[in-house]
Amino acid sequence: MRLLDRYIARQVFVSAMFAVAVIIIILVLGNVFKEILRELAKRPDLSLGFVLKFIALIIPVSLSLAIPFSFLTAILLTFGRLSADSEFVSMRMAGLNMTRICYPVLVLAIFFTSICAWVNLSVTPWAKTEMEGMKDSLFNYMKKEPMLLFPDQQVMSELDDHLVYAKKEDGMLKEFQMVKMVGNLPQALAIAKEASVAVELDKADPELILEMREVSLMIQGEKGNFMKSSQPVFMDEATAGVSVAKFERKGVNDKPGNISLRRIIGKSLDEDLDPATRATYRTELSMRMAFSVSCLTFGLIGVPLGITAQRRESTAGFVMSMTIAVSYYVMLTIVQIFQREEHLYPHLLVWVPNILFFCLGLHLFRKLSRR
Length: 371
Fold this sequence. Notes:
five-stranded antiparallel sheet
């Protein structure tokens, strides 16, 4: 019996680990690398350490979704193959009931549920907080080297209501062009031979200071549009200040998805919070737990579906698991839309997908056991 348990457990575990690797590398890191390469093309000054840290942080965030889906895929593939090779029939002829055959799956389900709980409740909030900090890294970079803000020979649109294009050379912005926009329409245009960059972060409204030389300015007049009312003005030097307050970190640690388990429990019980905010925290807490126990739900529904499908092909199991997983996550997403509506009890509705799939899995499992 121990040999059979190890055999089934090894098949499911190896398949699950392979599926996790495939999902993270292809579906997750593929998009991450695309975004990183885009940023590196714009800002080659970004360090390799920055890139590697971002990748390391995205992995635990992805695991909360990848592990349940991979576990389901592994069960469907393993039990589908056992059924197609008549190994399942041999086990039943040896006098083993379904509960005994699935004992290794239960052990693995508990193991993966524990891993998911640890990832969802502790690791993912920390990783999301760190990722938010990296998104704010442009603000941090300004403290060290403001030039890192600007891509080389590409339009920069991150500044509020401003478009900037320049060539980075010798620590200066050469062939500098900046357009100030109001309502997606140009209000002012500055073209300079070169510009130096500095920051003033100690002000109430932090500013990026651009000191331009050999400047041509065009500013919209009081009447008419920009092209008709503006007149060119030539200056040897000019200084412009652009607000960078949007890059400053604001309330990152209070976002429901980022705070620790202890804090989210405290906020979900805090009667001083307004009902909508409290409902959001309660829904987030329930969501983390629901994702964790989904491994048990998927394990229960995966065994009968894998056996009755009777397919060796990996595509059949993958498509079936994809259908179940997408249905599950769509239900959770719909609940999240109403997470601020306390009167709808969204923190309880989060458990509806688990209950539905658990009941379906229990029905299919009992039906299979009677065969």
